[in-house]
């Protein structure tokens, strides 16, 4: 399988900042809790703990997304999209992306991803399709909130972040379903 390009490479360059996690690491295999239970991969659909720092002082809010560019769709696969996270929030606990949004700060909005659920959806690539990348991104925005309807798509959220993103940090773990 030819690896799809990183979608952020086609956007204007944005400064980076520090993103770390107790649950995931760059280039490392996702643990079972971060695999999908909904789509039968034996996991729990548990979003990983994420913490960030050293973002620009002009940051007024954040968005957090997870995207698999390697999905066999021609357009990738959105696993998670949350926005209107206040600038005072610098960490999401493990499981914050559950269906109730219990670990998210007040005012944060979770969109339905490509799996049709309004929560974090764990990895579940097709057996034998090769290694998939899961790009967890924290986007620092220079607006306090985005006027994006809760029924919008994650791609539409990305369109609305264009021009208001002041920095971006990513962590990209991987997973392969060897079937």
Structure description:
With 179 residues, the protein is mostly beta strands. It has one domain: PEBP-like (Phosphatidylethanolamine-binding Protein), CATH 3.90.280.10. The protein has one helix at 154-161; strands at 18-20, 50-53, 61-68, 77-86, 91-92, 109-110, 132-133, 135-141, 165-171, 174-175. The strands form 3 sheets. A 5-stranded antiparallel sheet has the order 6-4-3-8-9, with helices on one face. The chain has a 3-stranded antiparallel sheet with strand order 1-2-5, with no helix packed on it. The protein has a two-stranded antiparallel sheet with strand order 7-10. The radius of gyration is 15 Å and the shape is globular. The model has no long low-confidence stretch (mean pLDDT 96).
How would you summarize this macromolecular structure in one to three sentences?
The chain is mainly beta.
Name a few traits of the molecule.
179 residues, mainly beta, Phosphatidylethanolamine-binding Protein, 5-stranded antiparallel sheet, 1 helix, globular
Could you outline the blueprint of secondary structure elements for this entry?
Elements: E1 18-20, E2 50-53, E3 61-68, E4 77-86, E5 91-92, E6 109-110, E7 132-133, E8 135-141, H1 154-161, E9 165-171, E10 174-175
Antiparallel strand pairs: 1-2, 2-5, 3-4, 3-8, 4-6, 7-10, 8-9
Helix content: under 10%
CATH domain fold name = Phosphatidylethanolamine-binding Protein
**Count of individual beta strands:** 10
Q: Which outline best applies?
A: globular
The description of the largest β-sheet is:
5 strands, antiparallel
């Amino acid at each position: 399988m030819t690896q799809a390009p990183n979608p952020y490479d086609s956007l204007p360059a944005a400064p980076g900042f520090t993103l770390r996690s107790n649950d995931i690491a760059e280039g490392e295999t996702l643990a079972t809790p971060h695999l999908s239970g909904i789509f039968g991969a034996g996991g729990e659909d548990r979003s990983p703990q994420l913490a960030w720092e050293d973002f620009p002082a002009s940051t007024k809010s954040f968005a957090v997304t997870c995207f698999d560019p390697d999905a066999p769709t021609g357009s990738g696969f959105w696993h998670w999209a949350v926005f209107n996270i206040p600038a005072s929030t610098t960490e999401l606990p493990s499981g914050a992306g559950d269906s109730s949004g219990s670990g998210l700060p007040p005012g944060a909005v979770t969109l339905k991803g490509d799996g049709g659920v309004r929560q974090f959806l764990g990895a579940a690539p097709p057996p034998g399709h090769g290694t998939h990348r899961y790009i967890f991104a924290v986007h620092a925005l220079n607006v306090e909130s985005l006027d994006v309807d809760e029924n919008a798509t994650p791609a539409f959220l990305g369109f609305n972040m264009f021009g208001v993103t002041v920095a971006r940090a990513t962590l990209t773990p991987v997973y392969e379903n060897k079937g």
